[in-house]
Amino acid sequence: MYHTPMDIEIPQSAQIILDLLEAAGHEAYVVGGCVRDALMGREPADWDITTSAKPEQIKAAAAEAGLKTVDTGIAHGTVTVIIDHEPFEVTTYRADGEYSDGRHPDSIEFLDRIDGDLARRDFTVNAMAYNPTRGLVDHFGGQSDLQAGILRAVGDPRERFTEDALRIVRGLRFAAQLGFSIEERTSQAMHELRNLLDDIAVERIWIEFSGLLCGKDAVPVLREYHDVVFTIIPELADEYEFDQHNPFHRYDVWEHTLHALQAAPPDMDATQRLAILLHDVGKPYCLTFDEDGKGHMYGHEKLGEPIARDVCHHLRLSRADTQTVTHLVRHHMFSIPDTEKAMRRFLVKHGPERAQQLFAIRRCDKSGIGRGQMVESPMSVAFAKAEKLMEEQLHAEPVFGVKDLAVSGRDLIDAGMAQGPAIGRVLEVLLDAVVEGEVPNEREVLLARAQQLMPR
Ligand code: ATP
Ligand code: MG
């Protein structure tokens, strides 16, 4: 539901900052994302403030009120003011100078009036400012675009994306998160200028792209702007319209991937969503035909793993996130465990967290096939059974690693075993015996078994 400016409830701390700046003779407004979100009835993530006060004046006014400040980006006019441990970014009205490298403004210029500050912002819905006594400042029709659900660049879209191409991905991110449609000229410029993204720091791109992947409308945006996606992740481009030549698969590889992503649960994180995006990235490189002329892509998960790793490196993902993505791509074709013992082995092999992620990605993969397989095929019956087995095993006394055993290395030493690598080997054998269901995970039983194994 759309709210009016009168409904905007500024938190007390932000209001204190507005008041102290105004009392010192400056103008001050909340601005950007928080105004947009408040008008949409969404809870803003943070409240940014824009002001006519120069950085030194912001600091002086805060100091007078006994508030701490941090010089976050003094050169760009940003001072962080802290109230009750909560940080607020306060930025001087500014215009950005030339963007000769399409990344950073060569210079910035402080302004006395808010107009220019709003004009430097990316989209009309992000270019509004509000102050309870002065009201809403909306020079670019942000309010009506917000009501109509339209994302529109401020000013000439081609100029704005040429200045800073990151705005292309930000725009897609906002469209996906807010469910907005992108205005025609803005959309055209995004397609046309997508190659400028090659010069943008990948860390900045990934921040916005991961937000896009988690947006409620991610899939239609990825579908319409696949050319932009392939500029960011060129490894995906060969999936586009890649026919799987198999009646089992209703869609080409890219379209299947989008359907799989559509099935992701709302709380799935960006890393796992990236794994879904990349799960079949090896397919275009291993198509073979059987004697009936049916296509198969055997081993695509093995081929996909190094490709996925390259993508993660290129996007500068952390080591842990890279491991998650590559593990999920590599193992997404796992055979469905059909007994308690097989499920315990599966949980030991992958660890409980990864095992659950693998099931989640497999569920998405299956519903992305597009033939209703989830409903009643033997495969889906097996899958449902396996999910139940996993649930039971996870809730039973969990034994997924040596640390979960009822005996420790210490216990073995106390029982007379010499310190050294043999201890670890005995524990591994005990783990195996428990996982295989040969012995229960009980201290006395395991100690007895260990006695038989101990080197004397
Ligand atoms: P979110 O709620 O997701 O944080 P936001 O709109 O607050 O969205 P931020 O990245 O926090 O986005 O940026 C704050 C504001 O700064 C934006 O609303 C916009 O006015 C401006 N802005 C940020 N990045 C750019 C950019 N690359 N080009 C132009 N304006 C930008
Ligand atoms: Mg923000």
Q: Flag low-confidence runs.
A: none
Total discrete domains: 4
CATH architecture of the largest domain: Orthogonal Bundle
Biggest sheet layout:
7 strands, mixed
Strand percentage lies at: 5-15%
Oligomer: single chain
Whole-number average pLDDT?
93
What order do the strands of the largest sheet run in, or round the barrel if closed?
A: 3-4-5-2-1-8-9
C-alpha geometry: globular
CATH topology of the largest domain: Hypothetical protein af1432
Tally of extended strands? 13
CATH class annotation of the largest domain: Mainly Alpha
The count of helical stretches stands at 22
Roughly how many Å apart are the termini?
76 Å
Helix fraction bin: 40-55%
Ligand names: adenosine-5'-triphosphate, magnesium ion
Backbone structural class: alpha+beta
Q: Give the radius of gyration.
A: 28 Å
